[in-house]
Amino acid sequence: MHSEAKVEQTNTENCQVCGSQLDYFSKGKELACYDCGKMETGNICCSNGHYVCDDCHGKGCFEIVRDYVLKSRTANPLEIAEILMGYKDKVPMLGCENAWVAAGALISAIRNEGSYTVTDDQVVEVLNRTKRQAIGGYCGLTGVCGIAPAIGACFSVVLNAACPKDQETAQTMRVVAKIVSVIASETGPCCCKNFVRQSLQEATYLVKEILNVALENNQQQLSCTDIERHPHGCRKEKCAYFKEK
Ligand SMILES: [Zn+2]
Ligand SMILES: [Zn+2]
Fold first, then answer.
1. Which residue from 21, 23, 222, 230 puts its CA 20 to 30 A from 136's CA?
2. Ligand 2 centroid to 98 CA: how many Å?
3. C-alpha angle 145/56/177, rounded to 5°?
4. DSSP strands (E only) in the chain
């Protein structure tokens, strides 16, 4: 549980091990995961040298997202995402666990709307595909935030896109391009919570346009509860979900 003690706004969620500030390297280096010992090339570690690999960063979170979205019954992806992001001790402020939330929320809402048959296996397939391409920190490192492939995976599974296909794949790619563009308007600094909400709103328009499925969208009423929690500082007035207390 988070302590109720007043903490510096820029220092509330940093290193998962010791809480100190995270350093971002422009050149990746060989780092050993503090949790599992795996060596890999990483671009983020704390000032005390702690590195946590993507698998360990989201430990336990994947199952929580999967289990929740499999039993959810609402056709409102934003509502599902808010509930999952509300598990603040399980879904980190920043990191691609938020991409799993976006993927799970959207595919679950499409399924719950009822026009398309989406099986449990397909829901899990969307999450597994997202996990392969959503890598923490890569929003800035390659320009591909994990939420873009998350939304793409939903369309790909519903449209049955694949390498040998034509329009199914083209439409999926165009969706991903749109999502990247929406996210690009919300940087400075990157905020996974904002990206999830903006991407899911855009996704509800794209789902209507491409799949003719009308999902619910309560975007206007959302107000962020993570303002104090952003390690790089909240974007405040630049963010649609910032509301003065
Ligand atoms: Zn540390
Ligand atoms: Zn690890």
1. 222
2. 18
3. 10
4. 22-32, 39-46
Ligand 1 centroid vs 192 CA: distance in angstroms? 21
197 closest CA partner among 135, 132, 147, 126: 147
Ligand 2 centre to CA of 35 (Å) is 5
Residue 193 Cα to ligand 1 midpoint, Å, equals 23
Q: What is the pLDDT along the chain (245 residues), one digit of tens a residue?
A: 343 333 333 334 688 889 898 999 999 999 999 999 999 999 999 999 999 998 888 888 999 999 999 999 999 999 999 999 999 988 999 999 999 999 999 999 999 999 999 999 999 999 999 999 999 999 999 999 999 999 999 999 999 999 999 999 999 999 999 999 999 999 999 999 999 999 999 999 999 999 999 999 887 789 999 999 898 999 999 999 998 76
Q: Is the pTM of this model over 0.85?
A: yes
For residue 212, how far is its CA from the centre of ligand 1 (angstroms)? 47
Please give the backbone phi and psi of residue 134, each rounded to the nearest 5 degrees, phi first: -95, 105
Cα–Cα distances (Å) from 14 to 24, 46, 52, 114, 200, in that order, read 12, 8, 12, 41, 26
Between the CA of 205 and the centroid of ligand 2 the distance, in Å, is: 37
The amino acid that residue 33 corresponds to is C
Q: How far is the CA of 185 from the centre of ligand 1 (A)?
A: 31
Tokens of 18: 């010791």
CA of 35 to the centre of ligand 1 (A): 12
Radius of gyration of the chain (CA): 18
